[in-house]
């Protein structure tokens, strides 16, 4: 049920599928006989030097993919010198991750109706020394994901015939989970009045995503968070301009990995248009459908300054914990490095549209 939670889009999954497929229409411009030694993938993102232009996306309930999953993914990112983003809907709490890592991580915020909880959550992110706050704007209402309905997905999972069958087929997962630090939403449980047990937690969470959220609320957040602010879920150049006006330091061109508006365009197909509009004012980041270092290089060529992966690291985490995430990151690093060289570039920050054989998405 946790694999199916990750491996799905909303409704027909058409946007999820096109996020991946549209990368195939982009072709590199191959160059030869250039000095390809002394290559560097280092970049400066939001004032922070990182080892490649890649970060880990915020992913809900990683701690049910693998025991203490958020802590392990954060450790893998730390080891590879790239940012980890902790989801509001994580199993391990902000404090759990901070206690078990040594570098600052980024925190992703879902705006919820309970503003006093939001106030406290932002303060907790500050106290944990988080170096950026990422506000997700594309989940005021929730897209329907058929797998999760069929599996009756909850954290922790309910015990019924379906889940018992799934547990029996994964005995190692069950044994490991019994030793895990936490099994429910660590950022919420114990931090909200009247949420003291699992059933009150479930109904509180379901009711909390705030459909009234507008750009004014970004001002409310800005008053409480003076650090780096990333706005996630931008798919339109007009919204990108509004994000600049709202005081963001970066936007993420993202459609939530195809899990929200089914029928929205792929992220890669709108990236260059949005980047051209605002890249001189704020950093343009990108996620959705990246499955290789070649995909990272394509996104950089079309105007992204930083990219993110969601599912590729979640699959590594589910299979092998921290080692699996590290392996996924090593694979992407190597593919990016070699493909960049074959395009005749040695410095990743110089990659641009000149490295492509045209822009298939230019209108
Ligand atoms: C299983 C899963 C859980 C997610 N949970 C969150 C979340 O809690 N907060 C958020 O802002 N985005 C969430 N996302 C969206 C990701 O942050 C990211 O936008 C998306 O995964 C990128 O696409 P990719 O998986 O194709 O790399 C989730 C995505 C997946 C697959």
Ligand kinds: flavin mononucleotide
Radius of gyration: 20 Å
User: Main β-sheet: number of strands, strand sense, barrel status?
Assistant: 8 strands, parallel
* Beginning-to-end CA distance, first to last residue: 40 Å
The DSSP helix count reads 15
Q: Mean of the pLDDT scores? A: 95
Strand % is 5-15%
Number of domains: 1
Low-confidence stretches: none
Give the structural class. Answer: alpha/beta
Q: What is the N-to-C succession of helices and strands?
A: HHEEEHHEHEHEHHHHHEHEHEHEH
What would you say the CATH architecture is? Alpha-Beta Barrel
Number of strands: 10
Sum up the overall morphology in one term: globular
**For the record, what CATH class applies?**
Alpha Beta
Would you kindly provide a written description of the structure presented here, covering whatever features stand out?
This protein has helices at residues 2-6, 14-21, 62-65, 69-80, 94-100, 115-127, 146-151, 161-168, 171-178, 198-208, 215-224, 237-245, 267-278, 293-301, 311-342, and strands at residues 43-45, 48-50, 54-56, 85-86, 106-110, 132-136, 228-234, 250-253, 283-286, 306-309. The protein is built from 15 helices and ten strands. The mean pLDDT is 95. The strands form two sheets. Strands 3-10-9-8-7-6-5-4 form an eight-stranded parallel sheet. It has a two-stranded antiparallel ribbon with strand order 1-2. Helix content is 42%, strand content 11%. The chain has a single domain (2-355), classed as Aldolase class I (TIM Barrel, Alpha-Beta Barrel), CATH 3.20.20.70. With 363 residues, it is α/β, with parallel strands linked by helices. It is globular and about 65 Å long. Bound molecules: flavin mononucleotide. Flavin mononucleotide binds next to helix 1 and helix 15.
């Amino acid at each position: 049920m946790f694999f199916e939670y990750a491996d799905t889009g909303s409704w027909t999954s058409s946007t999820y599928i096109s996020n991946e497929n549209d990368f195939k229409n982009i072709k590199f411009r191959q160059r030869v006989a250039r000095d390809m030694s002394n290559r560097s993938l280092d970049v400066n993102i939001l004032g922070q030097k990182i080892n490649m232009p890649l970060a880990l996306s915020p992913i809900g309930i990683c701690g049910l993919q693998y025991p203490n999953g958020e802590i392990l993914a954060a450790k893998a990112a730390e080891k590879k010198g790239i940012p980890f983003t902790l989801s509001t809907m994580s199993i391990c709490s902000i404090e759990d991750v901070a206690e078990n890592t040594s570098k600052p991580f980024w925190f992703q915020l879902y705006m919820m109706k309970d503003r006093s909880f939001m106030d406290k959550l932002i303060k907790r992110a500050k106290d944990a020394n988080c170096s950026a706050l990422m506000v997700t704007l594309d989940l005021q209402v929730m897209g329907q994901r058929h797998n999760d309905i069929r599996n009756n997905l909850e954290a922790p999972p309910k015990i019924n015939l379906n889940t018992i069958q799934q547990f029996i087929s994964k005995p190692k997962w069950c044994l490991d989970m019994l030793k895990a630090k936490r099994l429910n939403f660590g950022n919420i449980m114990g931090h909200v009045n009247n949420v003291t047990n699992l059933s009150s937690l479930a109904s509180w969470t379901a009711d909390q995503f705030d459909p009234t959220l507008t750009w004014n609320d970004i001002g409310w957040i800005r008053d409480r968070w003076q650090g780096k602010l990333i706005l996630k879920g931008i798919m339109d150049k007009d919204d990108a301009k509004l994000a600049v006006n709202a005081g963001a330091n970066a936007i993420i061109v993202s459609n939530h990995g195809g899990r929200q508006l089914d029928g929205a365009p792929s992220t890669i197909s709108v990236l260059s248009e949005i980047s051209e509009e605002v890249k001189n004012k704020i950093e343009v980041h990108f996620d959705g459908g990246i499955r290789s270092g070649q995909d990272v290089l394509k996104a950089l060529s079309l105007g992204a300054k930083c990219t993110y992966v969601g599912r590729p690291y979640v699959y590594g985490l589910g299979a092998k914990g921290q080692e699996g995430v590290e392996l996924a990151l090593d694979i992407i690093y190597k593919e990016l490095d070699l493909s960049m060289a074959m395009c005749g570039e040695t410095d990743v920050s110089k990659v641009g549209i000149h490295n492509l054989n045209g822009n298939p998405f230019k209108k």
